[in-house]
Design goal:
Length: 182
């Protein structure tokens, strides 16, 4: 089985230390050591309970989660380098560049939101959380799935149903998957 996450990166990094050191400092600025593993991505996707609803992905990065989501998924990434890479990797997908928050405010149908936007060390997280709460109140966010590297519930108190849907050990670092629904 091919590992498309951290181990592949570290293996590649051994050959090109300069390049990957630069990339690592880049990753630090977005709240993760490296892209999510294939296993974490699958766990996020499998947490979706209503496959008939449209899917909106926030913070697609280089597409490790995007890859396993339905082709009709709309993905958002505001970092230009990552957005450009996504457009090349997924030419048939709808990829939006820019901030996720205004897009959440424009939802006009009940949607499943898959978010990889960090909740820790992210000064904007309060605004994201408020945008999610508004989306839930208007009925436009039917389900929300996210992950954290610590066992803390990032969107506690917003949705009537909130639970830790699993712990994925095959990820660096291991990650908790959270699922919220009405
Ligand atoms: C931790 S990375 C996750 C990348 C990938 N989805 C994964 O799981 O490996 C978070 C991504 O969210 C993006 N991001 C952070 N805040 C954002 C926002 N407000 N709107 C859109 N993208 C955002 C960052 O640029 C970064 O690529």
């Amino acid at each position: 089985m091919e590992y498309t996450g951290a181990l592949a990166l570290l293996r590649a990094g051994l050959g090109k230390p300069g390049k990957h050191l630069a990339d690592l400092s880049d990753w630090a600025s977005i709240g993760a050591i490296c892209e999510s593993s294939h296993w974490l991505a699958r766990r996020m996707k499998n947490a979706i309970s209503d496959a008939t609803l449209p899917v909106l992905e926030l913070g697609a990065g280089y597409g490790s989660v995007t890859r396993v989501l339905p082709p009709s998924t709309v993905s958002i990434e505001r970092d230009t380098k990552r957005f450009d890479a996504l457009r090349v990797a997924f030419p048939d997908r709808t990829i939006l560049d820019g901030c996720a928050m205004p897009v959440l405010a424009q939802l006009n149908t009940p949607t499943v939101v898959i978010s990889s936007i960090p909740s820790i060390n992210n000064p904007e997280f309060g605004r994201l959380s408020a945008a999610i709460a508004r989306g839930h109140k208007t009925g436009m966010i039917a389900e929300l799935i996210t992950y954290t590297y610590f066992p803390h519930d990032p969107f506690a108190g917003i949705f009537p149903n909130s639970k830790m849907a699993g712990l994925e050990l095959l990820n660096i670092p291991p990650a908790f998957v959270w699922r919220y629904s009405c």
